[in-house]
């Protein structure tokens, strides 16, 4: 949901037929650097966190071996239509359940936010139970027949045996690899996400997002909207930490997706509440097509994913991270320590690049003639 505006930005300009070598200056912010020095190898090294390394190649447009073409062609006419019908059926079924449970019920309103996640009684129980079950069914439809889950005891976190009276975590912190991450977390803990405000108006998905308790943000806005949403998220995290009946928040602090091998810098929004966080690491193993949503269009990714007979997901749940007083006073330190812990336990590579660099990389791959305007905006 939160990735919708990002996809729009990354694909707002279609390829114009030029090759990457014709536009190598896009790969450098310094226009004086010679384009001949920017080889493909240098580009992939600089933007390694977004490079696809599967059989389908960069942007999913690589030359496929004959065996893969045969498997893909067979899946396109058999597996794909079956999965599309099943996925739509699951989505429609859950929408109808949400519609039934919210009849004659007004959403909880907080300024421009609204949600049904603060309902109580049988309505909330049905929404959560069915949401978790059907999210897992949806993953099954997508080929995730089994998911490897493990609780990984952290040896690098000091004082890990915290007393229970410190309370439950207010937020789940996860690395971001694909839109499939959202389905998994829905099936696991059914938390609230941060989503683009227009998601609330989408058919079917809009009502479901309100039942999830999503916090809506206008990502294109240059106003003080971010500050307002940040305050809402902080309040929701504190509420979840103090009240067991309140919905947990779910945040992807990297702000964008990677190829699953790297961990980008964390934004501090999820750490301002000074509440304990629950780090979760998602990994997708593959032999043919990578489920990571990095340098590939959404439509192409969905088609190839549905044409893959089996997909694999591994989940590593770290212990709840209780911040020290120093971390409470310094959200950036808090975020960095959690990030390093996740990188160590998940065997992920720390990277210093972010969403702006991802847009540069996508612009170069698409052969755009100018850098995305977002590079002149602060990526916070």
Structural account:
The protein is of the alpha/beta class and 380 residues long. The chain contains 12 helices and 11 strands. It has helices at residues 4-10, 40-46, 66-77, 79-101, 122-141, 180-188, 205-212, 225-242, 298-306, 325-329, 331-346, 355-366, and strands at 108-110, 113-115, 147-151, 171-174, 194-196, 215-217, 249-251, 262-263, 277-285, 312-317, 349-350. The protein has a 5-stranded mixed beta sheet with strand order 3-10-9-4-7, with helices on one face. Strands 1-2 form a two-stranded antiparallel sheet. Strand 5 (194-196), helix 7 and strand 6 form a beta-alpha-beta unit. Helix 4 (79-101) runs antiparallel to helix 5, helix 4 crosses helix 7 and helix 5 packs across helix 6. The longest helix is centred in the N-terminal third of the chain and has 23 residues, at 79-101. The chain is globular and about 55 Å long. The relative contact order is 0.18. Residues 2-37, 154-165 and 372-380 have low confidence and may be disordered.
